[in-house]
Design a protein that fits this description.
Strand content: 15-25%
CATH architecture: 3-Layer(aba) Sandwich
Number of helices: 8
Strand order of the largest sheet: 5-4-3-6-7-8
CATH class: Alpha Beta
Largest sheet: 6 strands, parallel
Shape: globular
Helix content: 25-40%
CATH topology: Rossmann fold
Radius of gyration: 17 Å
Order of helices and strands: EEEHHHEHEHEHEHEH
């Protein structure tokens, strides 16, 4: 067991039953020309989350934690993309449209790939999801159950959308979630702050929040104990 300094209070976790889940650190969201930019966002705002996520990923690998990567995207024929999702809003390019990194938010296209700094290692599960939450229409629950995982370290983008939805889904399934704040990012900084505040409200109603420095230190302490 190790204890992570977190909000709203310290969290004791067993590294043997802890997994790192990295949400949607994809080119389509973090790089120009992808889905994030098509929605009118400044994608450079997400870059700050990459170095903390990389440090967290390295610590998890050294400790032998299960690492799971997720990617939001759809089948090439869009059969798993609801019409309402495709039609929503007024983006400059919709899901499935051609872009500089291939068809936007389509599995198998370059834009759907995880950014190079956080590329999955051989053997690390990659969960392709058609929605915001990582449990919906995926086999994430089976992957975690096979390793008897009880606690999730969660990071990725965006804080208030796919990260938050996944944490809510996990909470309902009985997982304890620790969100790593600086390894998450949002196109709207106020939403990032509000999303983190909602997680820890009312005595950690959805989970706990810490930062990469404290989480990496706790993981390292567990490795040397």
């Amino acid at each position: 067991m190790v204890t992570v300094d977190a909000e709203p209070g310290p969290l004791a976790i067993d590294l043997a039953t802890t997994a790192l889940v990295i949400i949607d650190m994809q080119r389509d969201f973090l790089e120009p020309g992808g889905f994030g930019e098509s929605l009118g966002n400044d994608v450079s705002l997400l870059a700050a989350a990459v170095p903390p996520a990389r440090a967290l990923l390295a610590a998890a690998r050294r400790a032998g934690l299960l690492v799971v990567h997720t990617r939001e995207g759809h089948r090439p024929d869009l059969s798993d993309a609801p019409a309402a999702k495709i039609a929503r809003g007024t983006p400059s390019a919709r899901i499935g449209a051609p872009g500089p990194m291939g068809r936007i938010l389509i599995r198998g296209e370059p834009g759907h790939d995880i950014v190079a700094d956080l590329a999955p290692a051989p053997g690390e599960p990659v969960v392709d999801k058609p929605g915001k939450g990582a449990f919906y229409a995926t086999d994430l629950a089976e992957i975690l159950a096979a390793r008897s995982v009880a606690t999730l370290l969660v990071c990725g983008v965006t804080t208030e959308v796919c990260v938050h939805t996944t944490v809510r889904e996990a909470n309902d399934r009985g997982y304890r979630c620790l969100v790593v704040s600086d390894a998450c990012g949002s196109y709207i900084p106020a939403f990032h702050a509000a999303g983190l505040a909602m997680i820890v409200a009312q005595g950690s109603i959805f989970g706990w929040v810490s930062d990469s420095h404290r989480v990496v230190a706790a993981i390292a302490a567990g490795r040397t104990a």
